[in-house]
């Protein structure tokens, strides 16, 4: 999920992502690449349309244009990657191409020695294709992956349900969001859906409260040091605790998946059972596969995460990241060539036109499917600062600890101080 333009937000994200991608190296260019026909095993998360069909067409088209290269795609549910990829990288035959979100997560993976350094194979084209956004798939200045989409997170909402509740304009402040929750409840409408079963959607809330409470300098410093010391982090947890106390989510949210089936959090919004969801720009594409409503696009709007009174963060800063792929060492040159194709204008235009995501190749942005997606793209790429999701910005184990601690608070356990402590303890154990 990630496309990115070369504008201030890119410079900002690039500044964040030198991150703690510190001293983890270990990926390497394969010493001997296969000669002759090559079969690449490709793990991606395109399990539903529209991206499922796009990737199927990519496999066919690429083989026709490159008869010596066969792509064997294996779609996996998004939530399976955190467990399956580390196990595969410990094994003898990891996939040749696999979904990667870059940053600290990728830095953790290259310590396996199985992730290929594709710097030389990509240097002739990556800047032209991805701009500075591609730097978020670098570790210590070496390229270990390539993005194909960029993402921005905000609230997707049902215009018809807002109208039923008498909400005339999207909330711009937390007070206005809380008032909207109250109005929706008064009409027996679930105000906000969340896929608590998968935990990462819970984390979006803490992420955003931190972005609103912490200054940009603090965010950068904290991610680089992998340590939460400033009081703003605890304040973000307190904001989250106060928000949870308003009971804004659907009944049974802790057992609700994010994207699987009509009863998922995305499915609830798609079928008019909930009014809002805090999700990325992939949401329209996800929802379209979960409903028979062919008019859904016209019923859905988007607004940024509201401002937080007294916060030190920039109220226009945005949470996001990107989807990309990394290569393992067996056939890294063939893999890198395939990644170049995924960033090409024809493929990127299909992603944009079909509503599968925001293209990383800016030439394709004009083909975005709806005016709403164009507005999200413009908002995100013009934002003064973009913070990568913390579970990707931090090393894998630290990001997982953060998500778990936030999910515990959603479940009525834990404290704001406990979230900060969990991250710092995981970071200490990760060194």
UniProtKB/TrEMBL annotation:
Signal peptide positions (record): 1-22
Keyword Signal: yes
UniProt keyword Nucleus, yes or no: no
Keywords: Signal
The name this protein goes by in its record: Raffinose/stachyose/melibiose transport system substrate-binding protein
